[in-house]
Amino acid sequence: MPLYNFREVWTPLRLLGIRFFQDDEQRWWLKIGSRTRRPLRRFWG
Predict the structure, then answer these.
(1) Distance from CA of residue 43 to its chain's centroid?
(2) Which residues, 6+ apart, have CB-to-CB distance to 42 below 8 Å?
(3) Taking a C-beta distance cutoff of 8 angstroms, is the pair 9, 22 a contact?
(4) Over the stretch 1-45, which tens digit does the pLDDT of each residue have?
(5) Which residue from 5, 31, 32, 45 puts its CA 20 to 30 A from 19's CA?
(6) Cα 44 from Cα 42, distance rounded (Å)
(7) Other CB atoms within 10 A of residue 17 CB
(8) Cα–Cα distance list, 16 to 9, 13, 21, 30 (Å)
(9) In terms of domain of life, where is this protein from (predicted)?
(10) Torsion angles phi and psi, residue 14, rounded to 5
(11) Percentages of the chain per state (helix, strand, coil), in multiples of 5
(12) pTM (2 decimals)?
């Protein structure tokens, strides 16, 4: 399992339990509630 260092990006959705993170390679991850983080797939371009 790869080792990632995450930085949480604060958004107003944090108040609803939806959190966004960025790893060392500037990829975005999504965490909803107490579920595990999952990579956020780009749906634009």
Answers:
(1) 15
(2) none
(3) yes
(4) 678 899 999 999 999 999 999 999 989 999 999 999 999 987 775
(5) 45
(6) 6
(7) 11
(8) 14, 5, 15, 13
(9) Bacteria
(10) -60, -35
(11) 10, 35, 55
(12) 0.80
